[in-house]
Design brief:
single chain, 385 residues, mainly beta, five-stranded antiparallel β-sheet, four-stranded antiparallel β-sheet, 49% strand, elongated
Length: 385
Amino acid sequence: MEIKIEKQFGDTPYYLTSAMVRKDGDIFNDKVKVYGFRMKGGKDLIVPSHTKVDFDGEHVICMDMRSRYEAEHTDLYRVDGEGLEKIREFGPEVSYFRKVGKNFIENREDGNVNILDGRDFSVKAGGFSSLMWNDFYVGKEKRPLLIATKGGFADGTRTVGAVWADTGETYIPCKYTNLNINVETDRIYISKEGKWGVTDCDGHTVVNLYWDMTYPIDGNIHAVKDDKVAVFDLDGNLLVPLEEGFDQVKMKKGDRFAIVTKDGEDFTYDTATGRSYHGRETDEALKGMLKDMEGYKGEYGGYKEYRFEEPRPLRDLHYDSEGNIRFNAIVNNKTKEIAFEGLIPEDRMSVLNNTDRARREFVKAKAEKAEVKAKPERKPFRFGR
């Protein structure tokens, strides 16, 4: 039997090996691939003989699968120096076995799915119809979270929630119809009785259960009701109200200005003032927005100029009496280089949003600096001699 190395398990001195063998008693079928476990240096701790082998740095799980999701036999080993110690063995009553964090999950043949304690294999939580693990580490402490379901589709009893893999404790009760986790933003999108909402991973409501659909896009939360779109930031602050009646909204996290569509027409929307300007990044829309932005300094020699305090990606911005937008000196905050003199329409929105973002960050930093300066100096305490 020729044994090959499939891969190394991370930075450990252990490897997944494989070999092609014929099934017992069947000399006519093609060979099948089986897997084993080898230590660095060439010592085979498990000769390739299993259809599935997993290793988490501490335990080796070997399964002989009778189908894609059902095991006929499972062996569980613990790595012990240069050898392996078998600590558990399961028959077909455990159809699937895997480790999540420090605990194990068993799918039983009777349909129950349980979380087992990683030390004594006692049931920490059970009675689920499925526990789905998709590398969900959420919350401030980045704890492993499992999507849990109870009931079934066939009889219409299926409900979904979430449990902590490390403790087996319920995080979200199994009472919802759908549950989607966005790991990048630590937000959970839930639905019940046809209504969608959003919570954070610490259990606080971000957007109420009210909407026909909620979903993440460009760092914000979009909520749909009767085919109209509202936009919230990740803290649940309303950026674009439903009452505006927009069919589509395009804006990134932290943007002040958005491109919106209503009744087939494009508008530019200012979330700070709630005003809409007809057109998609047109001169007309820009003129209206610029006049509403802080930093407007009036007319100089036939031009309307806008100057912003440092730091500023947009140093001087003006348009002439005929309404043509002119950008004389656009300075990149990071490189400090002047990029170009004119802007095509597609670039204008990003420049305006970057300008407004830089201005707000500057004002915030200036206020924080003033607050620190206003605090009385604390003299160090000295013990008397």
